[in-house]
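Possible regression after last week's pipeline update?

I re-ran a chain I had predicted before the update to compare outputs. Posting the input and the new output here so someone can diff against the archived version. Not blocking, just want to make sure nothing changed silently.
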Amino acid sequence: MAAEVSAALIGVGGGIITTLITVFRKEIKEMFFGTANNSFLLGTWDCEWTITSPSDDKTGKILDTVEIDNVTGNLIKGKGKTDGFGNSFLEGKATDFAVVFKYSGEGKMKDLVGGVVLKKGSPIKIDGVWCQYTSSGLLKAGETTWKKNNSFS
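New output (post-update):
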């Protein structure tokens, strides 16, 4: 009889746990994986970078492309490509209102490291600021605008 009572209690306990997981599925997922509303970041972004510091920098606007290829909850990974500078790796984290990336160059530009903070404004355009050290040790910073590239080429 004790075995039957134990089996019944285990069955009831399993039913309660299953019900709790079903009811709180969204909260449990967010607890372990972050919010799941970041999938709009996936894809190709055309980026424009403006240097505001140092104020005497005459580089002008820098254009590049960023491909976000992995979004897992609030964790984001991707790669960038800038003509004249080469490729870079990005990884970051998203909150409900912003995305933060750290990036580093590849190959001879491996010492090019920096960070970007973007405010989530819309699923097709996000703006923010960036800061990086160049390979010569100079600190540069500015503003950036990312526009979703929806071309199918």
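Follow-up from reviewer: compared with the archived run. Residues 39 and 71 are 6 Å apart (CA to CA). Marking as no regression found.
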